[in-house]
Structure formats: structure tokens, C-alpha cells
Write a structure and sequence with these properties.
By secondary structure, this protein is mainly β. Among the domains are: 1-161; 224-405, no CATH class; 410-502, Sandwich (Immunoglobulin-like). Helix content is 0%, strand content 45%. The protein is built from 1 helix and 82 strands. The strands form 16 sheets. The protein has a 20-stranded parallel β-sheet that branches. The protein starts with a strand and ends with a strand. Mean pLDDT is 88; it is low at 134-138.
Length: 886
């Protein structure tokens, strides 16, 4: 025990300039260590149980360039009410390296060359941490590699070429303020697991970022404010918050505003809930910046994002998200919050919301949870400031007791309208608050593209009314235009919605991309108004097991591309669509392992990043059996789920309506009397998107093995935004299964399949071709189309059962046959797409020549023969799709 002592000017050639202790207990109280020096551990080297209280360490030094510290301690360590100032270390964490079980409280560090290194289980509470300039690449204020809690503390100051907080372990930061940090890289960097709770990062400067969640790391930011920081590396890729490759970053109930960088948030897959990302700037002049550079997790909900052009893929009005001004113009941050950080209570400063802020009561109570999914009791300010007031949580880190303003809400029944054609958009304007009196509403939009009433009135006693937006036929080819409609009224906040006006004067609709595995070539068909212009690639080399072609938007640019798989060596080649009517030369895109046998190939966007992937299943026995893996155009492989290898058929579709592709399969029961419908739904997990299988989701009353179920086809038959399926048995009877059954808790939006036989029977004697799906009529329901052997195009038009008095579930599908075209040669391949850009699907029949049949909503036009297909008749289509090609 050492009490009330002074160690000054001591020197050791080894470790511990003042004290070297290796056995037993060491207790130091009320003591000063000044100007002591050692080759390593300038002041103290100690092992065992070490207790330091009310002690000062100043101007101690060591000179080993291999990683020493002023204090090195191992064991059970307690430091209270002490001070570390002006200590010098050549390299390493410098001030102290502590290993073991550690408690530090009410302690200050300041003006040290380096900081504190923790390796163990530690609690740091009410500490003040800081460093000074030393221009050394390893300078760090706090480095953690164990299980550490930093609570009720401050971290400030320091200009160096290292960092302020570096975590490679498990770190919880709570009720702590970081300010005035300036580093070459990023002040806060996580390579492990970090939970940032009820804390503030302000007035700090980083190079490429202020906060970085490194590759494969996990970070949550909850109830926190990131404000007034700067990231500037002299380029265009700096950001305030950066998420690395395969990093898992969740931001909830937080406010990110007033920062200066090329973007506020960078990275893909970030989950953003109940948060404000707005009012950030690109430079000191206040130029608005990119708010989110990357694609957020599509389930991100109830956020205020200032810029619709950089909202991370979020859509205004979907999942409670408020994007810009009604999804159109950039939001003025002064209409959301007070832009100056204020002492509004609690240990850290916050941005208070202003009256009328769109963030008031606009959050989701269910999403107001911490990293352990425990509901938040308080906002960033802590005890005494309830997280939920006035029944609904506010968006952002600050919870107000303000009531939400009276608002107008504009909704549209569709997102596009044709020039001069039906159907028009039916718009509904709704008001909140009292309906005692009538309300005059002003409508504003682009009158050169759409016609609309300048004013409408919501009658007394009514909360809403409707009006129409009609596309104007301007007679010029100006392409599809994005138009904004805004509704406003005195005393109400306005609302806007954007939609597109499709140019019916234009000649270009969708095109086709086909892989012919006989000629081993790709054929690209570009629409020209009366048919298709063709482009053909050079043939691929012959392969013993042949080639498989896949069509999709593999690079996320909105155009159809091709992926070709050599079935002998399992190597992919990527054919990028140039957007100019051609395909670029193929480039390698990775390979599947030749150690396995692969089957059940599909194409879809299974992780929601806007880029299609090729999915396949390992069907060989042994290691990896049943694994579903995807390959993208950059050669990246992803694992999604392990499924039984006994599925009769698997197919891709969006079966829970979240905009991300899933898989559904048919699996015969043991007695082969029925076929089970088993979806595998893509969900967000801490390690990225994965599939979750949902058993007991429905079944067909016949099987694939004995009933001959075949031609499994996907389409939204009832127009509810969730895909359904259809099959056909040996006798030609069509069965549908719609996703209108009981909700399943396994995945958001998932419901059971309800099977119906209220579809036609296609007699095999005259229907030898398979049916295809498309939206051929003026509704949101997809239909079936088949080429009959009698050279007719026959449609099975979908309707929804609404007779609640019968025994058929409401919302299930009924289909009836209609003749839509005559004179289409049997044996030709038909491809569905919107080839004239009118919003309705059409059909192209391909043989030696091509014939296009355009939908008029109730029948096809007379077929347009647009001549020979380049390269001659297609030998065998092995991968085809319709979509945007230029």
C-alpha cells in the first residue's frame, strides 16, 4: 500500500520507472508520479490486484519504439478519481495498457501523446478522455479489444494521424459525448461489435469518415445525434458514417444533421428506422450534399430523409418514410428541427424539434427499440424524458411533447399515366383533424404534361375527396416525364406525390433478350415502333455439357443483361447491355464449385440491392447438400438457405410484397397424392439477407408425380402486390394459389396460399404449348396467355371473387378464356413484354420471322410481321426475358 507519496524523476532501464510489481496486491492512494522514465512502462508495471485512487500521473515517459506504455497493468484493476496528463510515449496506446477485469471511474486523461488500451472486461464511467497532436500514425485515445462499457463520459480534443476510438472487441458506448476530434482517418472506427446509445458526436473531423463500421463488423447507433462533423479526404467518397463490405449497421431513433461531407451515410444494407437524415451539406458554403450514398435495407421505416434523389432507395409514403417534400423536392431542415445543438436536458446536447415538424408522432413505436430489441424508455437525454409522448414516438433522437400539425395527405391509385389515354390517375386528398367545415384545397402540377382541377373542396363532414390527373397528349416525342402534384390548404402542411407520364408519341417500349443454346448466341431485340431491330453476339465455344443462359438486370442499371454458364466447367460469363442496342463483350463472372452437382437455377434480386443474381442449389449428396447459393455479375457468391433436395420444382417471385424476390417450391407428400406449397422468403438478418422456409403454407390437391402438375408459373393474379402461382395437371386443368390466406409470423407480409380450381381447362388435344403470364388488361391483375394449336392466342383473364356469400374465399382468383388473336403460327415461341410502352403487356411470337401482337386492353391488334430474326430461326430458347434494353 502506497499512500500520500511522490515518485519523481525515477528511471529504469527495463520496465516500471517508478514501480515494478508482479505478485500480490498493489494499492496506491493520493500519490503523484512525475517525470519518471523507463525503457518500457515509464511509471508503473504491475500484475495482480491493482487499486489506484486519487493519484496523478504527469510527464512520465518511455522510449521503447516497440509498443510500450506509461502504465502497464494486468489482473484486477481499479482506477478512481485519478488524473493522467502530459505523459509521453514513443509508440502504442501509450498512456496505459490494462488487461483483465477493469473498473475506471471519475478519472481524467488530457494532453497525453497517446491514450488508453483496454483488453479485458471493463467498465469506464464518468471519465474524460483526450489526446494531443503528436503526428504519429498509431495515436489513439481509446483502444478496446475486450468487453468494454464506456458510460457517462466525454471524449474530446486531439489532432493526430491515428484515431480517437478504435474497437475490435465488444463495446457499449452510452450517454457519452464525443467532440472536437480531428484525425486523418476516422475518429470512431469499429472492427468488432459496437453499440452506440444515447450519445453525441459533434464538431469532429475525419478523413474519409467520422464514424466507420469496417468490413464484417457490427454496429448499432440508437437514440443518438451525429451533428456538426466534417469528413474531407479531398475526394468525393468521404462520408460522415461509412459502412464497410458485409458490415451490419443499424441506426434507430437518431438524428444525423448539419454535417459536412460528400455524403452523410455511405454503404449498402444499412437498416435505418425512426431517424432523421437531413440538412447535411457538401462544403462550408452550405451546398446540399448526398444524404445516403448506397442502398438501404428496404425494410427501413419511419424516417425523415431530406433528399429524394439520395434516399437510399426509400420511397416517400412507403413504410412510413418521409422523403423530401412529398417525395419530390429537398426538405428544408429548418422545417424539421432547431439547427443549433442545445442543452435541452440530459448529459448530451440535442436538436429539438420545432412546432409543425414532420417528425412529430411520425415514428413507429414497434421500432423504438435498442440493440437487444428492448423498447426504449427514454430519448437521448435519458431519465425524465420519455421516449414516447402523445402516444406515438417522434422520429429522431429528441422526443417532443408537441402535437402533430394538421396535414394534407395525397395518395395516387397508380404511379403512371399515359398521354391522352385511359386509365387516368385517381388522386385522393385527405385531411387530419376536424371535419366540421369544408376545406378548399389548391392543386399544383405541370400543366404541360397533365391536366387537373386547380382547386377542389373537401366537404364538411368528410375527411377526403378525389380528383383525376389526366395525361396530356402533347404530340411530341419527349419520353417519359416525372411529374409532381402538390396539394395545399391554409393552416395545413402540404403534401406531394410524384408520378410518370408515359410518352405515347415515343416508339420505344420494352425489348427482348434471348439465349439460343443451339447457336450458343445471344439475340437482343430492340423495339422500333413497328417491330424489333436485332443484334447477335458471336457464338460461345462448344461445351460438352452445353450452356445455360440467364436474363436479368445484373448490374443494376435498369437494362437487361445476360449471364451464360458453361455447364462443363461451371464458369459464368457476363454480357453487359451497353444501352445502345448491343451487348458488350463477355467478361468472367466467377464460377460455381465443380465439387458439387447444381440444379434448380433461377434469376432474381434476392438481397434487394437492385441487381439480379443467378440462384442454384447443390443437389449432390454429402457436404453442402441442399444449399441455395447465388452468383452475381461481379463474381460474388452468397448463401441464402439450405433446402431439401427433393423439391419437384422451384420458382422465383415476390411472395410477401416487400419488393425483394423470394422462392417457392412444390414438394409432393409421401403418398404422392398432394403437392405442398413451401415458400422460402427473403428476410433481413444480422448477417445479411437469408431465406426462411415457411412450412404448412398450402397444398395442391394433386401431386407432380401422379397428377402431372407442371408449368409452375408466377404472377400477381389478384393485384394485391404479392405474387401468386399457377400450375396445370395432366388433363390440362389450371389451378391457382393466391397469397391471401392466414398471415405467417415467419416473415413480414407472408401469408398462406389459397388454392382455387376456378380457372379453365386447356384440353391437351389442342393446347400443346405452355401458358405464360402478363398484365394484358387495364387492371393490376396478371393473366395467362397460351398459343393454341389452332393458331390462336387464348387468354385466361383473371378476376377476383368478391361474393362474400359463397364458399370461396374473398380475394381468390377466377379465370375465364377469351380469344385475343388469330393467325399466330403454332410451334413458335412467345415472349411477353410491354413492347410499345403503353403500360399493357404484348406478345412477340418468334420463329424464322417475328410477329408482334399489341394489347388494346381487351384483345390483340393484328399481328405486325417485322421480318426475319437475325441469324435465322432460333434453335432453342434457353433463357429469355423482356424489359428495358436501351
Amino acid at each position: 500500500t502506497i499512500t500520500g507519496s511522490l515518485f519523481q524523476g525515477n528511471f529504469a532501464s527495463g520496465s516500471g520507472g517508478a514501480i515494478y510489481h508482479t505478485v500480490g496486491n498493489l494499492k496506491i492512494d493520493g500519490t503523484s508520479f512525475l517525470t519518471s522514465t523507463a525503457f518500457r512502462s515509464g511509471a508503473i508495471y504491475a500484475e495482480g490486484t491493482i487499486t489506484i485512487s486519487k493519484t496523478k500521473f504527469s510527464q512520465n515517459a518511455n522510449y521503447d519504439d516497440g509498443g510500450p506504455h506509461v502504465i502497464t497493468a494486468k489482473g484486477t484493476i481499479t482506477i478512481t478519481e485519478s488524473e493522467f496528463t502530459n505523459n509521453i510515449s514513443q509508440r502504442g496506446a501509450g498512456m496505459a495498457k490494462l488487461t483483465g477485469n477493469i473498473l475506471i471511474s471519475d478519472t481524467k486523461t488530457a494532453n497525453n501523446d497517446y491514450g488508453l488500451e483496454i483488453d479485458g472486461t471493463a467498465l469506464l464511467q464518468r471519465v474524460s478522455l483526450g489526446v494531443v497532436p503528436f503526428n504519429n500514425i498509431d495515436a489513439t485515445t481509446l483502444m478496446t479489444s475486450g468487453s468494454v462499457q464506456l458510460i457517462d463520459s466525454t471524449v474530446s480534443g486531439g489532432t493526430d494521424f491515428g484515431g480517437t476510438l478504435r474497437n475490435s472487441g465488444d463495446l457499449v458506448v452510452e450517454r457519452t459525448a464525443f467532440s472536437g476530434l480531428a484525425v486523418f482517418s476516422a475518429p470512431i472506427a469499429n472492427s468488432g461489435t459496437m453499440h452506440f446509445i444515447s450519445s453525441l458526436v459533434s464538431q469532429s473531423i475525419g478523413g474519409f469518415a467520422v464514424i466507420v463500421n469496417n468490413d464484417n463488423a457490427v454496429m448499432t447507433i440508437t437514440n443518438s445525434t451525429i451533428s456538426g462533423n466534417t469528413a474531407n479526404n479531398g475526394g468525393s467518397d468521404d462520408s460522415v458514417i461509412s459502412n464497410g463490405n458485409n458490415g451490419t449497421l443499424t441506426i434507430a431513433n437518431s438524428t444525423i444533421t448539419g454535417n459536412e461531407a460528400s455524403s452523410a451515410i455511405t454503404g449498402d444494407g444499412i437498416l435505418l428506422n425512426n431517424s432523421i437524415v437531413a440538412g447535411n451539406v457538401a462544403d462550408f458554403s452550405g451546398t446540399p450534399t448526398t444524404e445516403i450514398d448506397g442502398t438501404l435495407n428496404p425494410s427501413s421505416s419511419n424516417n425523415v430523409v431530406g433528399d429524394p434523389a439520395s434516399a437510399g432507395g426509400l420511397t416517400h409514403g412507403k413504410n412510413g418514410n418521409i422523403i423530401g417534400v412529398g417525395g419530390a423536392g429537398r426538405l428544408d431542415i429548418h422545417t424539421v428541427l432547431i439547427t443549433t445543438l442545445g442543452n435541452n436536458g440530459g448529459p448530451t446536447r440535442t436538436h429539438a424539434l420545432i412546432p409543425g415538424s414532420p417528425a412529430i408522432n411520425a415514428g413507429s413505436n414497434a421500432l423504438a427499440v435498442d440493440f437487444a430489441k428492448i423498447p426504449l424508455a427514454f430519448d437521448q437525454r435519458g431519465m425524465g424524458f420519455a421516449r414516447i409522448q402523445n402516444s406515438t414516438v417522434d422520429i429522431g433522437a429528441f422526443e417532443s411533447n408537441l402535437t402533430p400539425p394538421s396535414t394534407l395527405t395525397l395518395t395516387l391509385d397508380r404511379t403512371s399515366v399515359l398521354e391522352g389515354s385511359l386509365p387516368h390517375i385517381v388522386a385522393t386528398v385527405s385531411r387530419s383533424g376536424s371535419t366540421a367545415s369544408s376545406l378548399a384545397v389548391t392543386i399544383m402540377s405541370d400543366s404541360t404534361e397533365v391536366s387537373f382541377p386547380p382547386t377542389i373542396t373537401i366537404p364538411a363532414g368528410k375527411a377526403s375527396t378525389t380528383f383525376e390527373l389526366q395525361g396530356v397528349d402533347d404530340g411530341i416525342v419527349d419520353g417519359t416525364q416525372t411529374v409532381i402534384a402538390t396539394v395545399s390548404a391554409s393552416g395545413f402542411t402540404s403534401d406531394s406525390q410524384s408520378f410518370t407520364v408515359i410518352d405515347t408519341d415515343a416508339t420505344n417500349g420494352e425489348g427482348v433478350l434471348i439465349f439460343d443454346d443451339v447457336s450458343r448466341t445471344w439475340r437482343l431485340g430492340v423495339p422500333n415502333g413497328t417491330g424489333l431491330n436485332w443484334f447477335q453476339t458471336n457464338p460461345l465455344p462448344a461445351a460438352t455439357n452445353g450452356w445455360q443462359g440467364f436474363v436479368g438486370d445484373f448490374n443494376g442499371d435498369g437494362l437487361l443483361d445476360g449471364m451464360a454458364l458453361n455447364m462443363s466447367n461451371l464458369r459464368f460469363n457476363f454480357y453487359r447491355n451497353t444501352g445502345e442496342g448491343t451487348l458488350a463483350n463477355p467478361v468472367p463472372a466467377g464460377a460455381l464449385s465443380t465439387n458439387f452437382t447444381w440444379d434448380n437455377f433461377m434469376v432474381g434480386d434476392y438481397d434487394g440491392n437492385g441487381r439480379a443474381e443467378v440462384m442454384a442449389q447443390i443437389v449432390s449428396t454429402g457436404l453442402g447438400q441442399g444449399a441455395m447459393r447465388s452468383q452475381d455479375s461481379s463474381g460474388v457468391s452468397r448463401f441464402y438457405v439450405t433446402l431439401n433436395t427433393g423439391y419437384e420444382e422451384l420458382i422465383t417471385g415476390d411472395f410477401n410484397g416487400d419488393g425483394i424476390d423470394d422462392v417457392v417450391g412444390l414438394f409432393d407428400n409421401v403418398t404422392q397424392t398432394r403437392s405442398n406449397i413451401i415458400p422460402a422468403i427473403s428476410i433481413s438478418t444480422p448477417v445479411g439477407r437469408r431465406f426462411t422456409s415457411i412450412l404448412g403454407s398450402g397444398q395442391f390437391g394433386q401431386s407432380v408425380a401422379t397428377g402431372g402438375l407442371h408449368n409452375l408459373t408466377v404472377g400477381d393474379w389478384n393485384g394485391d402486390g404479392r405474387d401468386d402461382i399457377a400450375v396445370q395437371n395432366t388433363n390440362g386443368q389450371i389451378f391457382t394459389a393466391t397469397t391471401i390466406g392466414d398471415a405467417r409470423i415467419n416473415a413480414p407480409g407472408a401469408q398462406n396460399f389459397v388454392v382455387s380450381a376456378r380457372s379453365p381447362r386447356l384440353d391437351p388435344a389442342t393446347y400443346s404449348n405452355l401458358f405464360v403470364a402478363g398484365n394484358f388488361t387495364n387492371d393490376a391483375r396478371e393473366d395467362l396467355m397460351v398459343l393454341r394449336d389452332t393458331n390462336q392466342l387464348i387468354a385466361a383473364i383473371s378476376n377476383v371473387n368478391t361474393n362474400s356469400g359463397d364458399a370461396i374465399p374473398d380475394g381468390s382468383v377466377e379465370q375465364h378464356l377469351e380469344i385475343w388473336a388469330e393467325g399466330v403460327s403454332n410451334g413458335e415461341d412467345i415472349i411477353v413484354g410491354d413492347f410499345n410502352g403503353d403500360g399493357l403487356d404484348d406478345v412477340v411470337a418468334l420463329g424464322t420471322t417475328g410477329v408482334m401482337s399489341l394489347s388494346g386492353g381487351s384483345e390483340f391488334s393484328v399481328g405486325l410481321n417485322f421480318g426475319n430474326v437475325i441469324g435465322g430461326a432460333i434453335g432453342n430458347i434457353n433463357g429469355a426475358g423482356a424489359g428495358r434494353v436501351i
